[in-house]
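If you are new to this repository, start here. Below is one unmodified record pulled from the training split, so you can see the exact layout before writing a loader.
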Amino acid sequence: MASTWLRLKEFYDWALQNGDERTDPWFLVYSPAPVTTVFFMYLFVVWFGPKLMENRKAFDLKAVLITYNFSLVGLSSYMFYEFLVTSLLANYSYLCQPVDYSSSSKLGIRMAKVCWWFYISKVVELLDTVFFILRKKNNQITFLHVYHHCTMIFNWWAAVKYVAGGQSFFIGMLNSFVHVVMYLYYGLAAMGPQMQKYLWWKRYLTILQMVQFFGIAAHTFYNLFSDCDYPDGFNLVVCLYIVSLILLFSNFYYRSYVRHNRKEE
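And here is the target side for that same chain:
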């Protein structure tokens, strides 16, 4: 047992010390301890929050939600712009792009910074669940919702810690674009019932999310089996993760739109 703990400690120390020297000093990057703490705090809120609100009146968060959602539209727009423009200026390959770890590369640092912002945005987006709880919209807190939020913070901690750039940019760029559309929808919905007639495209938002996942899957599978100087371990994790999201979102789409429409016929 002692030798097992020693090996685990040695691996942990190795993992800490072999990260990207450019990003290690940045907030919430060097150690997994802070993001793990955030993870457990989030799970506690998911478990305890509905119990706390059970006998309380739902909060009216209209102004907060409008500000929050449109702020994320702005942040997502900024990140999409940075991913796209930086990749074009640096002449990134959309098929195979190694990570530029050079501290002297301005474009490499710029790409690493937007990867960090993307990671931080995933931490901020945990507030989605908090707002559901405060508004007593517990039906929105599904396994898919919690799974997606929990896994994204760890996935992007690892991305910023070890591969801030390279192939990672493609995932961040696609997801930032989708989140511009998604939080625009949420922001408009938060403005009140008078906006419902303009929100007929909710189904197509889910389709856009799924198209994104298939695009990421194709991109990552290609790199997993091609000769690309990018860690295969990360490509494999992304492949397995994106398959899980495709399955979960496909099930959500079926239950929300296909089966629901059949019941109405």
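Two things worth knowing about this chain: Residues 59-264 form one domain. The two ends are 62 Å apart (CA to CA).
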